[in-house]
Amino acid sequence: MFKQISRFYRKLFRSQLQPKHVAVRESSTDNLTIIPRKQHSISRQSISENALKVLYRLNKQGYEAYLVGGCVRDLLLGKRPKDFDVTTNATPEQIQKVFRNCRLVGRRFKLAHILFGKEIIEVATFRGNHENEKNPNTSKRSQNGMLLRDNVYGTIEEDAKRRDFTINSLYYSIKDFTVRDYCHGLSDLQNGIVRLIGDPETRYREDPVRMLRAIRFAAKLDLVIEKSSAEPIKHLAPLLRHIPAARLFDESLKLFQTGKGYACYQLLREYHLFGQLFPIIEKLFTPTLNKGTSSNMERIIEQVLKNTDYRIENNKGVNPAFLFSAFLWYPLNELTQNLMQESGLTYHDAFSVACSDILHEQCKTIAIPRRITSVINDIWHLQIRLSKRFGKRAFSVYEHNKFRAAYDLLELRASIEKGELLEQAKWWDEFQHSTSEVQHAMVKNLPHKPKQRKRKSVRNHRKKNGVDKA
């Protein structure tokens, strides 16, 4: 359904912007195409009031100011932008003088955030070329070619060439309501293409996250990555190791929790990027992506992403803690089994050690915040408690504030593994929808299982391995 709507908007967009209808004005930039208001679909009614305030005030102070990037692209496609970005020839310091509600952020890429309650309008100064820039405070590269400082300012023409993709190099002017296209972005948008501006390898090296952005735009907008833009991705994928883990956490949420998570996952695997984000998961992948050969781990990842996409499509909330708990469940189980065999720990103790180790290892590439890892831990430990329903245990688990998320993971596991887990999931589904009287009867009728023999404690394991903190 979503693809049909997307195709409809694209056809509509193409019909509005056929070459014979496009007005091209004379300009010092050969590639500049200017589309007048009558020939595009962007209306001020679709633009944030706060973004309009920023544009009008900058213009009033004598500065150029435009809406730019994804918000212009989405408006042309008939979509509602998540946020609105502004670009201007005013420097960050000049912007701060115009707006009292301004906060300057960023060191690598200095920006102005204009605060309107919960809404933030991001304002960037036109970026320029780095070719002749020698000041390390404004322009700096790593040995791999990654830009460590990108604060060289320039003209709007230079800024357009500094954008990542052609479809994001579109500028909307509030002065005359025109759309300015410097890099044939409109043509690529019409033809369903994601194309990097400039030499792809150089641009990916400048900022390896562009590889993830290419994947996200292709999945989100149902586009195809242009051949020369796609070719370097596989061999440049390891460059993501140089990106701060905190930034990759933000990018992972954009990939998996914006409604096209499953499509993003497929493309990430195709272009060898998924393993850079989740190395402990990739180790357990089956060699091929052919249907029918996937492991339990691959099936649970696919299913949780499909479920997440469905929830977002139906305006339901999603929880990153649940997503990561499902992603990492089978690596957690494998490590638990290894610890039991190697150290003689009980399942419960090995499981606790594995929970800590898996999260520690994953956070090296994606820095999952502590507020989320604590929830992941709760969801995982509740999986053990969900299997122990005797006496008062069932009621204690049911009252836990993470019960629902834990039950959802149990249900997901049951759909993958079948067997005894299906019985457990069915029992808990009935339990949570029953009266207190029925719940007590359900617990009473459970078949009793003999106690397991105790094994070596986790404290002895930690002392043996030099990790006891007591």
Automatic annotation (TrEMBL):
The active site consists of 83, 85, 164
The record's comment on protein family reads: Belongs to the tRNA nucleotidyltransferase/poly(A) polymerase family.
InterPro entries reported for this sequence: NT_sf, PolA_pol_head_dom, PolA_pol_I, PolyA_pol_arg_C_dom, PolyA_RNA-bd, tRNA_ntf/polyA_polymerase_I
Q: Which residues form the Poly A polymerase head domain?
A: 65-195
**Positions of the UniProt region annotated as Disordered:** 443-470
- PANTHER family assigned: POLYNUCLEOTIDE ADENYLYLTRANSFERASE FAMILY PROTEIN (PTHR43051:SF1)
Where the record annotates domain tRNA nucleotidyltransferase/poly(A) polymerase RNA and SrmB- binding, the positions are 224-282
Catalytic reaction list? RNA(n) + ATP = RNA(n)-3'-adenine ribonucleotide + diphosphate
Q: What Gene3D superfamilies does the record point to?
A: Beta Polymerase, domain 2, cca-adding enzyme, domain 2
Q: Name one GO molecular function term.
A: poly(A) RNA polymerase activity
Stored Pfam families? PolyA_pol (PF01743), PolyA_pol_arg_C (PF12626), PolyA_pol_RNAbd (PF12627)
Q: What is its EC number?
A: 2.7.7.19
Q: What would be the name of the gene that encodes this protein?
A: pcnB
Check the record and name the SUPFAM superfamilies matching this protein: Nucleotidyltransferase, Poly A polymerase C-terminal region-like
Q: Where is the composition biased (Basic residues)?
A: 446-464
| Full protein name | Poly(A) polymerase I
Keywords attached to this entry: ATP-binding, mRNA processing, Nucleotide-binding, Nucleotidyltransferase, RNA-binding, Transcription, Transferase
Indicate the secretion signal residues. none
Name all Polymerase A arginine-rich C-terminal domain ranges: 344-459
Question: Any stretches that span the bilayer, and where are they?
Answer: none
